[in-house]
Amino acid sequence: MKYRRLGRTGLYVSEICLGAMTFAGQEGSMWRAIGSVDQAGVDAMIGRALEAGVNFIDTADVYSSGESERMVGQALKNLGVKRSDVVIATKVYGEMGKGPNDRGASRGHIMDGVKASLDRLGLDHIDLYQIHGNDSITPVEETLRALDDLVREGLVRYVGCSNWAAWKMMKAHGIADHRGYARFETVQAYYSIAGRDLERDIVPMMQDQQMGLMVWSPLAGGLLSGKFGRDEDGPEGARRASFDFPPVNRDRAWDCIDAMRKVADARAVSVARIALAYVLSKPFVTSVIIGAKTNEQLDDNLAAAEIALTVDEIAALDEASKLPPEYPGWMLERQGAHRVPQPFKPKG
């Protein structure tokens, strides 16, 4: 397992992050379809991940209405995990009650949320606390001030956001820098070989601001697992659903799978491993979040960290998955062709 620096911080996290969205999954809820791993299964998965070198676990208060956090905390206790050996990330924003203030990124919801998350996790601090979505109502200043207070109180070590637009993250950085608040060190976002939209605006912003990237759904909701073909349903019990989330251009996705299958067959590994290895090959990626329903899935995903794609393999996959031209990107590229930094050569 390799470890990468988390944004500008001095913290190092494993390039594979264990996602906890498949934990619990109450009957009758949307989470049931995503996963319903019980406590014994959670203990086993976290134990396996730790043995493989994973030190990074991501959950959220909204996952199964808090049960995911509770099960993560119980597993750490059951396994006797030393607190400093794991980096625990969770999120706040989603609906946690029926009241009008039981959601969002307001100071009130954040302050209530962090206390509830700490209680469920059984911890005295959260390593990375993330705003789970874009709140178009709450001023960014209010959100940042609340997060900064949590950092100053020692309840939270670092803060991040998820599913924000590039412009809003830059606005947040400007406010944080001007007022001396804790800044967003990470962004958690969707990225996959079949969904490279992030590269248009968010990646350049992240690189400029030295933010870490945590990738969710690197297999595009299971579509890129290699279990399915253009006209195939896949094995019984496999999660095909309708593949409406995350939204993916199907034709491009199948082309990507065809290209990955060639690489996978040559290496005698699963297509899923190649899909994960491709995302990990990108220098702007800090950690890839994997979620599993079984230990077999977990082991296969963990093995992606052992694959180092060649330059030719990456080039072939890049070509199969390249984004269509979009303004202003194509104009910036054309006009900037002669403004690429070159070494200065004095005359004479």
Automatic annotation (TrEMBL):
A Pfam family it matches: Aldo_ket_red
GO terms for cellular component: cytosol
Molecular function as annotated in GO: oxidoreductase activity
Domain called NADP-dependent oxidoreductase: residue spans: 15-321
Organism superkingdom: Bacteria
Family matches, as InterPro entries: AKR_Detox_Biosynth, NAD(P)_OxRdtase_dom_sf, NADP_OxRdtase_dom
Keywords on record: Oxidoreductase
Oxidoreductase as UniProt keyword: yes
CDD domains per record: AKR_PsAKR (cd19091)
Protein name: Aldo/keto reductase
